[in-house]
Design brief:
409 residues; alpha+beta; OB fold (Dihydrolipoamide Acetyltransferase, E2P); Dihydrolipoamide Transferase; Chloramphenicol Acetyltransferase; 4-stranded antiparallel sheet
Length: 409
């Protein structure tokens, strides 16, 4: 019996996907629910599992192909007799032995392995049960950057590994001893570029700044961190304070939580906050839903979960869809001040920056305090400068006196 492998249903916001990696070859034995293919959309990497066990008879779409929902990718022949099973037994054994040595690879790790033509069996895994992590692969690439690396395909010559931060060059030219690389954008990078241009062209974007003294929050974290971790099994970070302060300010200034639809303004009565997270594929913005009803611990756990999913390439379309307001923290990379760009169709975005001790004046005395610059970029078509400034002042007041968050002041 033949079983078709189809592109799964793609969400309405995703028109097509790119086939970035096959994990089986024609003629290989496959098990039901085993991942066959990685599809890259402009938001996430989707895994396509085998719908049935059998032999992968035909591969109809090659790596790099653009596909849409329902497209035929491959055909699996179901094994129904002992002779066919025995015929496929040896490849299956080899695959099982490989799986025993190398547990299932995450999409991020798998993509590095495929791009750099690595043999995962040659890399020692430091993860649970010997699982390969991204760091394991990057360290292997770095250590072998100038030496040929063995590939699983014995018929192909070993390839030199390029820099860990670059994809393999599509073309390599030399002029007067200088080299150039031409690397196609990933779908995510191309989508980000498109949305950034869209934001600048379709909105009257303006940025206002303020600064906040984080002494009280740092003291709270120092005093209660141990008890917080024991009770909730997650660290108390800065982001939960910023999210809580943002929600309080959004309640006071609902236009900041609104969006523009042609000539209409849509006011949202819910608070879905996007938190920008760095991943192997670039910057992604998973969304915390109904944050006004979440406690500090719930926020921290959700952020930690998003961070882990981003590293493993397992963020779903639903994780990245929607949002009424976004927070981005360039301070984790050392940024002191920047003007964040709107995340359409949202009308505002808050930028956090690096915390540094600076001299400030308090009651006539010069003292050192941990200070952070805040930036609010907003769409001036619907948000007046007064509202933007007062919104940022409200966040500043909540952060400098966290008791206001508890007393709803």
């Amino acid at each position: 019996m033949k079983t078709e492998v189809l592109v799964p249903h793609l969400p309405e916001s995703v028109s097509d996907a790119t086939l970035i990696a096959w994990h089986k070859n024609a003629g290989d034995t496959v098990e039901k629910d085993e991942n066959l293919i990685d599809l890259e959309t402009d938001k996430v990497v989707l895994e396509v599992p085998a719908p049935q066990s059998g032999i992968l008879e035909k591969i109809l779409q090659k790596d790099g192909a653009t596909v849409t929902s329902g497209n035929l990718l491959a055909v699996i022949t179901t094994v129904n007799n002992h002779s066919a099973t025995e015929q496929a037994a040896e490849p299956e054994k080899t695959e099982n032995e490989s799986s025993a040595k190398n547990p299932a690879l995450s999409p991020a790790v798998r993509r590095l392995v495929v791009e750099h033509k690595l043999n995962p069996e040659a890399i020692d895994g430091s993860g649970k049960d010997g699982r390969l992590t991204k760091s394991d692969v990057l360290n292997f690439i770095k250590d072998n950057a100038t030496t040929p690396v063995a590939t699983p395909d014995a018929d192909k010559p070993a390839a030199k590994v390029p820099s860990a931060n670059l994809a393999p060059p599509a073309a390599l030219r030399s002029s007067d001893g200088r080299q150039e690389q031409r690397v196609p954008m990933t779908r995510l990078r191309a989508r980000v570029a498109e949305r950034l241009i869209q934001a600048q062209q379709n909105a009257a974007m303006l940025t206002t700044f303020n600064e906040v003294n984080l002494s009280r929050i740092i003291e709270l974290r120092r005093e209660y961190q141990e008890d917080f971790v024991k009770r909730h099994e997650v660290k108390l970070g800065f982001m939960s304070f910023f999210i809580k302060a943002s929600v309080e300010a959004l309640v006071r200034f609902p236009v900041i939580n609104a969006s523009v639809d042609n000539q209409d303004i849509i006011y949202h009565s819910y608070y879905d906050i996007g938190v920008a997270v760095s991943s192997d594929r670039g910057l992604v913005v998973p969304v915390l839903r109904d944050v006004d009803g979440m406690e500090f611990a719930s926020i921290e756990k959700q952020i930690a979960d998003f961070g882990n999913k981003a590293k493993q390439g397992k963020l779903s379309i639903d994780d990245l869809s929607g949002g009424t307001f976004t927070i981005t923290n360039g301070g984790t990379f050392g940024s002191m001040m920047s003007t964040p760009i709107l995340n359409p169709p949202q009308s505002a975005i808050l930028g956090m920056h690096n915390i540094q001790e600076r001299a400030v004046v308090e009651k006539g005395n010069i003292v050192a305090r941990p200070m952070m610059y805040l930036a609010l970029s907003y769409d001036h078509r619907i948000i007046d400068g007064r509202d933007a400034v007062q919104f940022l002042v409200s966040i500043k007041e909540s952060l400098e006196d966290p008791s206001r968050l508890l007393l709803n002041l």
